[in-house]
Amino acid sequence: xxxxxxxxxxxxxxxxxxxxxxxxxxxxxxxxxxxxxxxxxxxxxxxxxxxxxxxxxxxxxxxxxxxxxxxxxxxxxxxxxxxxxxxxxxxxxxxxxxxxxxxxxxxxxxxxxxxxxxxxxxxxxxxxxxxxxxxxxxxxxxxxxxxxxxxxxxxxxxxxxxxxxxxxxxxxxxxxxxxxxxxxxxxxxxxxxxxxxxxxxxxxxxxxxxxxxxx
Length: 215
Fold this sequence. Notes:
With 215 residues, the protein is α/β, with parallel strands linked by helices. It has a single domain (3-179), classed as Rossmann fold (3-Layer(aba) Sandwich). Helix content is 35%, strand content 16%. The chain has eight helices and six strands. Helix 2 packs antiparallel against helix 8 (202-211). It is globular. The model has no long low-confidence stretch (mean pLDDT 94).
């Protein structure tokens, strides 16, 4: 039986219950042996976050500490330059070997822009892609470029068992319970002095308060 590992990358600026619940539901539905949370140190597709990668990683560690399925992976903080996912996947494959199935978790909104990613055509050489629908985002295939439409057509599977039959190469869409929580809204509430209780773990809120982040 192949080990099946979920890969959840992002800025986690900051991490919240939307991230955590999504990871847990996917692990349950798809039989992940673990989920790697990989904070992006230098995200290539967005402005560098105002909060350092070290602070963002520390918040992830606090948020996942009580879940044995979840693991913080800091490889992007140790790498110079832009945090390209293809480099992360190559590094993971070298570490975990050819028998681990890597499942890159991606919002359907991000998939629409996948053809702007660095070496995007090579991603499926190293992993499967798990598409998750974001709240208030209706995936519309007409928005996909011809290249992404072809990619989806050639690699899509509705059978989750395929994800452990091979270690890479499939695209699978998985529904989850939508939690309408966004890091952007959390940052806005923190800046204006409003409560973020019940949007994120209490120990993460305490860390933000102690270090005076997002003020």
